[in-house]
Write a structure and sequence with these properties.
It is built from 15 helices and nine strands. The chain is about 50% helix and about 10% strand. The N terminus is likely disordered. The longest helix has about 35 residues. It folds into two domains: about 250 residues, TIM Barrel (Alpha-Beta Barrel); about 90 residues. The strands form two sheets. Strands 1, 2, 3, 7, 8 and 9 form a six-stranded parallel sheet that branches. The protein has a three-stranded parallel sheet with strand order 4-5-6. Helix 6 crosses helix 7, helix 11 packs parallel to helix 13 and helix 14 packs antiparallel against helix 15. The termini are far apart. With about 425 residues, the protein is an alpha/beta fold.
């Protein structure tokens, strides 16, 4: 259990003492840790909240924005202008429910107070028919004209409703493509906040867009903050994705923290001398957050996510923040070497186990070779299909693929060894003592 998870459990206890104990447990009260005083990296935190719309939880969102307004903490809000009325995952035709005046007024008040920075979070957030090989998406795969239409209409509607410019795009399910980026650039958007896993795959180097994906969430926030304080960067950025289910006011069973305890946490953050909470546009306005840094971070995150967590802890690879160029030059080669060694180890061990087992079993029961190969190949195909459906390869999925790939190769090698042995014995003929 992480320190912030323990904090959340304590924070659910009644009384202000429980809140204070929670914050002390999370390490967010008092002065920053000693490591911060030594390296003094400047840490900027961006809070991002998605799915604000006419069909989202109005009562909870009003209270959440009240917490940010009370603590004078900036928040980037992803707004859906025309959400579908029933099910976001159902691609069949559905009526839409444009952002109501009530919800617009709530946001306008927070924007005028200097608290909320609105961002476009899709058009209707309705998933397109899911391809056999891919993830949920609203924009990915659409033609340029249709993407332009949705982006333009959504942006203009929010600009009118909220009386504020919309320059940041948060694609639903973090899924976008090169066409989306081209359309965003044509419409003069500042940047896009799309994730690393299954998000934008091909990023043109010539694009003027800035990139700032979510790097952490509320349950992992303290670990991410601790990693950021250990970084070699002079300045680091943490983008924390908030979900309504994180809060006990929405989901009493799976929640992580209450709004009251969260308010105390934001107050404690404001007292950290090495930390500040900023808007997403404040970071995106800097030239270093262009496509080059995003691509480098994506490579590192792709490698780091495939390694078992205890190994990333052992080699100090866990981060949860947006790596600077200097840090990437150090940790990416380390992660790549560790991943290569891990892949080789799993393949070799599983290959050896399957090969030795096949050497012993296949000659005795020849039919077992076909059964073992069919079973192993079927599991391998199932794992590959299951992983691609979520478009999110993790260390668990990759380990499973490596194991069964090793088993399959070992079984094939054992089958080849058995066949070559039989062929060699056949060519040699009967042994001398059996000849007449």
């Amino acid at each position: 259990m992480t320190p912030l998870e323990r904090a959340a459990r304590i924070a659910r206890r009644p009384g202000r003492a429980g809140l204070t104990a929670a914050l002390l447990c999370a390490g967010l009260t008092g002065s920053p840790p000693a490591v911060a005083a030594q390296s003094k990296p400047r840490i900027e935190v961006v809070f991002r909240y998605d799915d604000f719309s006419s069909v989202s939880f109005t009562g909870f969102e009003t209270r959440l924005l009240g917490v940010f307004q009370k603590t004078r903490t900036p928040l980037t809000v992803g707004v859906i202008p025309f959400p579908v009325a029933k099910n976001f995952l159902d691609p069949s035709p559905q009526p839409t429910m444009p952002l109501t005046e009530e919800k617009s007024a709530i946001l306008r008040e927070a924007i005028q107070a200097g608290i909320v920075e609105p961002a476009l979070h899709g058009y209707s957030h309705q998933a397109r028919p899911r391809p056999f090989w891919g993830q949920f998406s609203e924009f990915k795969g659409l033609g340029r004209d249709e993407q332009m239409r949705r982006l333009r209409e959504g942006r203009d509607f929010l600009k009118t409703s909220l009386n504020h410019d919309i320059r940041i795009f948060i694609p639903p399910w973090d899924a976008a493509d090169a066409t989306t980026l081209d359309a965003l650039q044509s419409l003069d958007f500042l940047g896009v906040s799309a994730g690393f896993d299954g998000g934008v795959v091909l990023v043109p180097e010539s694009t003027s867009l800035k990139f700032l994906p979510a790097t952490s969430d509320l349950p992992r926030f303290y670990e991410s903050l601790r990693s950021a304080r250990k970084s070699d960067c002079s300045s680091t950025v943490l983008v924390v994705l908030l979900r309504d289910a994180d809060f006990s006011e929405v989901d009493g069973k799976r929640s992580f923290i209450s709004l009251e305890a969260f308010a105390e946490m934001l107050t404690a953050l404001s007292k950290q001398s090495d930390l500040s909470v900023v808007r997403m546009a404040d970071v995106m306005s800097r030239p270093e957050y262009g496509p080059g840094l995003f691509v480098k971070n994506k490579k590192f995150v792709s490698a780091e996510s495939l390694i078992y967590p205890w190994l990333t802890d052992l080699f100090n690879l866990n981060n949860g923040y947006y790596l600077c160029a200097a840090n990437i030059a150090v940790v990416y080669p380390r992660a790549a070497k560790l991943l290569a060694a891990y892949v080789a180890l799993v393949l070799i061990v599983c290959f050896a186990v399957a090969f030795r087992s096949g050497q012993w079993i296949f000659p005795k029961w020849p039919w077992s070779a076909a059964a073992a190969l069919f079973l192993t190949f079927s599991v391998l195909v199932f794992l590959a299909y299951d992983i691609q459906r979520d478009a999110d390869m993790t260390y668990k999925g990759m380990t499973g693929l490596l194991m069964f790939a090793g088993f399959l190769l070992g079984q094939l090698a054992a089958l080849a060894w058995s066949w070559l042995g039989r062929r060699r014995r056949f060519e040699q003929g009967p042994l001398e003592e059996w000849r007449i």
